[in-house]
Amino acid sequence: PGFSKKWGKIALGKICKIQTGKKDVNQGNHNGIYPFFTCAKQHTYSDTYSFDCDAILIAGNGDVGNCQFYSGKFEVYQRTYLLNDFKIFIHYIFPYLKHFFQNTISIQKQMGAMPYIKLETIQNFNINIPHSNLEQNAIAKILITADEEIEVLEKQKEKYEDQKKYLLNNLITGKIRVPKND
User: Fold this and answer.
1) What is residue 70's three-state secondary structure?
2) How far is it, in rounded angstroms, from Cα 18 to Cα 14?
3) Where are the alpha helices (DSSP H) in 62-132?
4) Residues 105-128: pLDDT tens digits?
5) Predicted local confidence at residue 85, as pLDDT
6) Block means of pLDDT (10 residues each) for the chain, length 182 residues?
7) Residue 129 and residue 108: Cα distance in Å, rounded?
8) Residue 28: which residues within 8 A CB-CB, separation 6 or more?
9) How do residues 164-173 score in pLDDT, each as one tens digit?
10) In angstroms, rounded to a whole number, what is the distance separating the alpha carbons of residues 41 and 26?
11) What is the DSSP letter of 28?
């Protein structure tokens, strides 16, 4: 009937390494070959990389608290937090952070000309975690499958929106005529 061991809480700083990048945002190159994670929603590119690992990246200012997962070679902006070397399954942690971290950050972020978060805020963020690695993996698999299905549906939605746009442009202008029903 499922898993039955109790869950625990642990601070994020106790289960992974947390650091920031060293590059300035102007060191990005849109024609580069390596993803360059800044505090924007979408990454840019870089000619060089400083990291080659599985990581969760958290925007430290700008789009504060936005979490992204990446695996491979990449570069990181100096105000973006890089979480890696996890003691717990990363594919369990990532959806947890995406779901709960942003809400917490909206309350705890520091305000100024540009909102930001402090390292301590990330280090002290508590995660509810099953003690069983098998349960962590089972949860992660379910969530990964759900994300994959959502991605397929979003692509289908884009196709339907393109078809509708085509029909609007051609039906409204009379380029395509509707058959007459008798």
Assistant:
1) strand
2) 10
3) 90-96, 102-108, 119-123
4) 876 655 666 778 889 999 999 999
5) 98
6) 86 97 87 93 93 96 89 95 96 93 73 78 94 92 94 96 95 90 76
7) 22
8) 36, 38, 44, 45, 46, 75
9) 999 999 999 9
10) 16
11) -
As given in the structure block, the two tokens for residue 130 are 């099953």
Is-contact 17 87, C-beta < 8 A? no
What is the H or E stretch that residue 34 is in?
Answer: strand 34-37
Strand, helix or coil for residue 109: coil
CB 55 within 8 A of CB 84: yes
Three-state DSSP state, 75: strand
Q: Is the whole model's pTM more than 0.70, yes or no?
A: yes
Name residue, tokens 């997962």.
69
Residue carrying structure tokens 């840019």: 44
Residue 86 in tokens: 């996890």
Q: Copy the structure tokens of residue 32.
A: 């580069």
Tokens of 66: 């936005």
Alpha carbons within 13 A on the beta-carbon side of 87: 13
* Contact (Cβ atoms closer than 8 angstroms) between residue 52 and residue 60: no
Q: What would the two tokens of residue 45 be?
A: 């590119």
Whole-number average pLDDT of the chain: 91
